[in-house]
Design brief:
By secondary structure, this protein is an alpha+beta fold. Helix content is 24%, strand content 36%. The chain has a six-stranded mixed β-sheet with strand order 6-7-8-3-9-10, sandwiched between helices. Strands 13-12-11-14-20 form a five-stranded antiparallel β-sheet. It has a five-stranded antiparallel β-sheet with strand order 15-19-16-17-18, with no helix packed on it. Strand 11 and strand 12 form a beta hairpin. The relative contact order is 0.12.
Length: 357
């Protein structure tokens, strides 16, 4: 039976170094939840605390209504998929998948039935008698997946499971993982540093940095409404511009960008002073007037053309213009004017707190 996972004020220290600081999460039953962030942000540390592999210096961890802080790892009813697969080289595929069931005392006929079903689900049933050395990386990863979910854990944990695969295989495997998770309904906590991977497979994402959670939300929320400049810069591509909020009401801020363009942005609260805008490449567009610049470079990418634009003060921006909206490309060196989709860009105060709605 799948479980919700609740983490309250988790702390992890290594000597004087605090790897996790006051992290709280509520992961819903059956949810695909991803911990995303750069190397060293604490995501794998947190996953290993959930698994029982790392000690807990502070906070409480729950599976459902049961606190698990002092429950040994082998009694937490988890399935684990590691970055390096960690399958046994001396056992066949079916023996690897059966291993956890045997350890739990499941009877042989039931083991055979469940192993066959698991291998069929990950589409490697014909490879059941092979050893890991006879398999490709993608096939080995499928073995690791089957071994993890065949025991029907209440929580499935995955630590960078696709990082050792090539780009094409990663895309294939992430689709398989998501479909399996939806079919089985297992609460899944997934660790990755790959933003595209996280956006593609997650129900919700916790973006982490320096041992703290920066934002929790759906892929759409994380991408479209980043809560701070770190999230805006880490997820996808963002253009950052310094600006000044010259006047403000409770509904709208008048923003001056480099003294060359004034725009009105919907805001959550009143604020005036120095600020910063982040704008995705698709949230900028060419216009007959606006911020002046010139085209430095263009790349045709099928659905859209990516332009590198240099503003008059030397700052460079990335703009995407979709081919369905244009009949020609801008020339290198061409003088252009840039405007913003004010309903979609993000505005932050001087301390990095989001102002825009």
């Amino acid at each position: 039976m799948s479980n919700e996972v609740i983490i309250k004020n988790a702390v992890k220290r290594y000597g004087d170094f605090t790897a996790l600081s006051d992290v709280s999460l509520h992961i819903k039953e059956g949810e695909f939840f991803t911990l995303l962030g750069p190397s060293g942000c604490g995501k794998t540390t947190l996953l290993r605390m959930i698994a029982g592999f790392n000690s807990i210096e502070g906070g409480e961890f729950f599976f459902g209504d049961k606190i698990i802080n002092n429950v040994p790892a082998h009694k937490r009813d988890i399935g684990m998929v590691f970055q390096n697969y960690a399958i046994f080289p001396h056992l066949t595929v079916e023996e690897n998948v059966a291993y956890g069931l045997k350890a739990r005392g499941v009877k042989k006929p039931e083991i055979e039935k469940r192993v066959k079903e698991a291998l069929d689900l990950v589409q490697i049933l014909p490879l059941a008698k092979r050893k890991p050395s006879e398999l490709s990386g993608g096939q080995q990863q499928r073995v690791a997946l089957a071994r993890a979910f065949v025991i029907e854990p209440s929580v499935l944990l995955m630590d960078e499971p696709l990082s050792n695969l090539d780009a094409k295989l990663r895309v294939q495997m992430r689709s398989i993982i998501k479909k399996l998770q939806r079919r089985l309904g297992i609460t899944t906590i997934y660790v990755t540093h790959d933003q595209e991977e996280a956006l593609a497979i997650s129900d919700r994402i916790a973006v982490m940095n320096q041992g703290k959670v920066m934002q929790i939300g759906t892929p759409t929320e994380i991408y479209a409404k980043p809560e701070n400049p770190f999230v805006a810069g880490f997820i996808g591509v963002s253009n950052f511009l310094n600006c000044e909020v010259t006047s403000c009401t409770e509904e709208s801020a008048r923003v001056s960008i480099k003294g060359e363009l004034d725009i009105d942005i919907p805001v959550r609260r009143n604020y005036t002073g120095k600020a910063q805008i982040s704008a995705r490449p698709e949230q900028l567009f060419f216009s007959q007037e606006g911020m002046p610049g010139k085209v430095l470079f263009s790349t045709f990418l099928g659905d859209f053309i990516e332009y590198e634009i240099q503003l008059d003060d030397g700052q460079e921006l990335i703009i995407n213009e979709y081919t369905k909206d244009t009949t020609s490309m801008h020339d290198i060196g061409e003088k252009v004017f840039i405007r913003f989709d004010v309903a979609r860009i993000s505005l932050y105060d001087e301390g990095g707190e989001v102002l825009s709605k």
